[in-house]
């Protein structure tokens, strides 16, 4: 048996009629850039997240960059974030001209440690970007309180967290803005790149709509230097069709995670922690193989030999990556992030998994420790 990390073909076949109809409708309309379909998706995403506004953009990366630019964050400003994340989180800070400042993570959730964040605040700090890693929100109550005390902006990196919530409030409604990714393997994925920004700030939403279209204030008139970052109608139509299935898909991921929680209990692995009050949507099901106790690479090889997909998100924290060393305090400066990179391992958790597939994954993990 082969169990991949994701099965996009199975997802497509599961709602082929709806997706095909949505694509053909756009082709027949011949309206491909922005338009009614993008506006409809923006309205649905804003309502779903509990935000007043949503702005469709070309990628999850742009969904983090445009809020920073709209806030006026740039050279001389510092933005605090996690080094244990996909590179785009840090990349956008640099693209905006600001300085990334790295705070460490909490070992159980892999999200920003508020105490570490507070220790990094200086008079130049302008914003915090908490990352809702693997589908679980960061400690937003504490981080929002910290931001309010220091007059800082908060931009949620919600790329992996559409539908996740904390204390009943969904990702996308906690910060001054939030960036979502529609990369194909996300819980809500397009047939290509796409992103969305949510905000309750009407002025910021208007600025981002301007920025995404070359800074346009009207046809061939420009108020600012902007970007070509528009969510196209084909992607919006596909995403709109998939929105109807999103909660069911998230529930299926949660069910798979619950199965693993029982099936992998008692092994020398640290299983994912769902903090009380959080609604985790398991974009990834990520275990820890404690260094010195479990050989992660041997476990990976064992699973691969059995046809079980697995991945390491992420093998090297951003503060130790070559491109970002100028902003780093070096190895040992962020011990929890560095330890996590050496120990994490993600297992298949996609919603289309069959009962037989997830049992095969769990058996593959168990067999590594039992020797059978």
What this model shows, in words?
With 372 residues, this protein is of the alpha/beta class. It has 2 domains: 8-103 and 110-243, Aspartate Aminotransferase, domain 2; 246-370, Aspartate Aminotransferase, domain 1, CATH 3.90.1150.10. 40% of the residues lie in helices and 14% in strands. The protein is built from 13 helices and 14 strands. It has helices spanning 8-14, 16-29, 36-49, 60-70, 88-95, 114-120, 140-150, 202-212, 233-243, 246-263, 296-305, 335-343, 355-370; strands at 53-57, 78-81, 99-102, 125-129, 153-157, 165-166, 169-170, 177-181, 195-199, 216-218, 221-222, 278-279, 285-288, 344-347. The strands form 4 sheets. It has a 7-stranded mixed sheet, sandwiched between helices. A 3-stranded antiparallel sheet has the order 7-6-12, with no helix packed on it. Strands 10-11 form a two-stranded antiparallel sheet. α10 packs parallel to α13 (355-370). The radius of gyration is 21 Å and the shape is globular. The model has no long low-confidence stretch (mean pLDDT 97).
The CATH architecture assignment of the largest domain turns out to be 3-Layer(aba) Sandwich
Q: List the uncertain runs.
A: none
Overall shape: it is globular
| Domain module count | 2
Give me the CATH superfamily of the largest domain: Type I PLP-dependent aspartate aminotransferase-like (Major domain)
The portion of residues forming beta strands comes to 5-15%
CATH fold label of the largest domain = Aspartate Aminotransferase, domain 2
Determine Rg (CA atoms, Å).
21 Å
Counting H and I runs of at least 4 residues, what is the number of helices? 13
Q: How many strand segments?
A: 14
The helix/strand order is HHHEHEHEHEHEEEEEHEEHHEEHHEH
N-to-C CA distance: 17 Å
Helix content: 25-40%
**CATH class type of the largest domain:** Alpha Beta
Largest sheet: 7 strands, mixed
What is the spatial order of strands in the main beta sheet?
1-9-8-5-4-2-3
Rounded average pLDDT: 97
Structural class: alpha/beta
